[in-house]
């Protein structure tokens, strides 16, 4: 495995680092999701959410389908966490340049890649998706994010960077959250604001309805396709709600929301399920004529 040669710029973001360093985050993700940090994909109407690992891999498989790239293509995993998505992509013969801003995640991802025997297909480095200067212009066939752009402090700059590093005809895939604003539900708005603040998700507050789509379009991408996976993540949101219910009552009683933001998020996520959307966005960087290089499969 190699690291990127250039030392990347990293924005200071103590709130983000505190969120991922918290005991709740470290233990919660490990115990419930085995260290993966994204939702699982279920058929709508599923009630039994186990085994969770199968649903997690299903979601990654959807991402691979959306990328729609031939074997040997090189893709960027921006915000790779512990590397499980990158490992899945590499096991399907993509070359992955994975990076994450949280050092602990980078170290864990590097170990996981070695354990999977995929160090020739995946590089893992520390980096900030606001600063892609270390990646040459038009050098990548694909870029993807799995539930990470919500943390961006300047999502427009991130999208502009993705556009620059992609080759003409390259694919951008983003599996991200959006929402509608609960104007008639002040309690939902209050809890939603708390979650965004304590989990360092400023962009999540901005991603009302189609805001992320507009950013993708404004960056220059075309052929934008959206799939709505909101019903597909519901079984895991329900499980999180059930697990969080009693702890949340205690946390609220003692005013400890700041320290247990995932527990609060589990309650907000399911109680106000109707305001949430889980979107799979796929877009193409057009060639110089302003069109995708070749027609892509309809998603
Ligand atoms: C919810 S986790 C998702 C991790 C991984 N994509 C997965 O699916 O398991 C979000 C990840 O984004 C990373 N992240 C947040 N802001 C970032 C940034 N500015 N640049 C790179 N990674 C970032 C976090 O450290 C965290 O690992």
TrEMBL record:
UniProt entry tagged with the keyword Lyase: no
GO biological process: one example: ergosterol biosynthetic process
GO cellular component terms given for this protein: endoplasmic reticulum
GO molecular-function term, one example from the UniProt record: sterol 24-C-methyltransferase activity
Gene3D superfamilies given in the database record: Vaccinia Virus protein VP39
Stretches assigned to the Methyltransferase domain: 75-170
Transmembrane segments: 236-254
Keywords for the protein's UniProt record, in alphabetical order: Membrane, Transferase, Transmembrane, Transmembrane helix
Keyword Transferase (UniProt): yes
Domain of life: Eukaryota
Protein family: Belongs to the class I-like SAM-binding methyltransferase superfamily. Erg6/SMT family.
Database matches in PANTHER family: HYPOTHETICAL LOC100005854 (PTHR44068:SF1), ZGC:194242 (PTHR44068)
Name of the protein: Methyltransferase domain-containing protein
């Amino acid at each position: 495995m190699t690291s990127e040669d250039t030392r990347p710029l990293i924005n200071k973001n103590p709130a983000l680092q505190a969120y991922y360093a918290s005991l709740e985050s470290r233990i919660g993700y490990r115990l419930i999701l085995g260290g993966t940090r994204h939702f699982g994909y279920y058929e709508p109407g599923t009630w039994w959410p186990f085994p969770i690992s199968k649903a997690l891999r299903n979601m990654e498989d959807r991402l691979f389908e959306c990328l729609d790239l031939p074997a040997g293509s090189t893709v960027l995993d921006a915000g790779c966490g512990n590397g499980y998505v990158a490992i899945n992509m590499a096991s399907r013969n993509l070359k992955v340049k994975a990076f994450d801003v949280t050092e602990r995640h980078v170290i864990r991802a590097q170990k996981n890649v070695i354990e999977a025997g995929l160090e020739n297909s995946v590089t893992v480095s520390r980096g900030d998706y606001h600063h892609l200067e270390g990646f040459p212009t038009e050098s990548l066939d694909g870029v993807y994010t799995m539930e990470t752009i919500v943390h961006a402090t300047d999502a427009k700059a991130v999208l502009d960077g993705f556009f620059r590093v992609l080759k003409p005809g390259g694919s951008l895939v983003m599996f991200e959250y959006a929402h509608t604003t609960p104007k008639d539900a002040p309690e939902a708005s209050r809890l939603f604001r708390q979650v965004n603040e304590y989990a360092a998700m400023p962009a999540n507050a901005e991603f009302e309805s189609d805001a992320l789509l507009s950013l993708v379009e404004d960056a220059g991408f075309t052929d934008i396709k959206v799939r709505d996976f909101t019903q597909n993540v519901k079984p895991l949101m329900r499980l999180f709600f059930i697990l969080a219910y009693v702890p949340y009552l205690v946390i609220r009683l003692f005013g400890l929301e700041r320290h247990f933001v995932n527990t609060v998020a589990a309650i907000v996520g399911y109680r106000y399920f109707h305001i949430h959307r889980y979107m799979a966005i796929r877009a193409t960087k057009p060639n110089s004529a302003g069109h995708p290089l070749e027609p892509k499969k309809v998603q």
